[in-house]
TrEMBL record:
<protein>
    <recommendedName>
        <fullName>Translocation protein sec66</fullName>
    </recommendedName>
</protein>
<feature type="compositionally biased region" description="Polar residues">
    <location>
        <begin position="179"/>
        <end position="211"/>
    </location>
</feature>
<dbReference type="Pfam" id="PF09802">
    <property type="entry name" value="Sec66"/>
</dbReference>
<dbReference type="GO" id="GO:0031204">
    <property type="term" value="P:post-translational protein targeting to membrane, translocation"/>
</dbReference>
<dbReference type="GO" id="GO:0031207">
    <property type="term" value="C:Sec62/Sec63 complex"/>
</dbReference>
<keyword id="KW-1133">Transmembrane helix</keyword>
<feature type="transmembrane region" description="Helical">
    <location>
        <begin position="6"/>
        <end position="25"/>
    </location>
</feature>
<keyword id="KW-0472">Membrane</keyword>
<feature type="region of interest" description="Disordered">
    <location>
        <begin position="178"/>
        <end position="221"/>
    </location>
</feature>
<keyword id="KW-0812">Transmembrane</keyword>
<dbReference type="InterPro" id="IPR018624">
    <property type="entry name" value="Sec66"/>
</dbReference>
Length: 221
């Protein structure tokens, strides 16, 4: 009987210890306050401040602009989470990072989902159906701003390259005009006036003998 109870007692002790450790660990992590993944949300704070302003109240155009800026900030956060999540998950599996950073990311992802739903509801409160297109619009505006920043920095980058390589950029434009050829007349085509004159002269020549014959016939009569 004793040899049978020993392995059973061993299994009970091992699994019981694991269960107790898991219970207290989950209780500790559930009450632990993680450091936020994103420090603050100034665009949301600005929109809420304008929305609560009553003397004088903010105009609808100003509120819409602030809401679009808020949506643009949310799009940036979504893109950052999509980029960071696979890398952090890989590092967590390797043991390179702790659970605190991963739990902070998961918490930020849940907060961002609630933030997106709130922005959609606010957009629909202004114009019905605007919530479906506000985030694509914000994404396009972000792309336009990035392109504008690149174009604005072209002159600075050009100056840095000229200073680095001690040369000046030269733009050479070659403008070539294709020669135009005019058709030449070979002088073989007869003119219309000449043709008319030939025809008219032939007509007169053919009609002259007929008139003289008629005159002779009248004299004989």
């Amino acid at each position: 009987m004793a040899p049978v109870l020993v392995p059973i007692a061993y299994i009970v002790i091992v699994f019981g210890g694991l269960f107790i450790f898991s219970f207290f660990y989950r209780k500790h992590t559930s009450t632990q306050a993680y450091e936020p993944y994103f420090s603050s949300h100034p665009e949301r704070n600005a929109y809420v401040t304008l929305l609560q302003k009553t003397d004088p109240p903010a105009s609808d155009s100003l509120l819409k602009s602030a809401l679009v800026r808020r949506a643009m900030a949310d799009v940036q956060r979504v893109m950052r989470i999509r980029e960071d999540k696979p890398a952090l998950q890989n590092l967590l599996q390797k043991g390179s990072i702790g659970d605190d950073l991963w739990n902070s990311l998961i918490s930020a992802e849940k907060e961002l989902e609630a933030e997106i739903m709130e922005v959609v509801a606010e957009a629909n409160s202004f114009v019905e159906g605007w919530g479906q297109v506000i985030f694509p619009t914000a994404n396009e505006m972000m792309a336009n701003e990035k392109m504008r920043v690149v174009f604005d920095n072209i002159s600075e980058a050009k100056a840095e390259l000229e200073l680095k390589y001690d040369v000046k950029a030269k733009i050479t434009a070659t403008i070539g005009a294709a020669p135009t050829s005019q058709p030449r007349s070979n002088g073989l085509a007869p003119s219309s006036a000449g043709t008319d004159s030939v025809v008219s002269s032939d007509g007169e020549a053919s009609s002259t003998p007929g008139k003289s014959a008629q005159k002779k016939a009248k004299k004989r009569r």
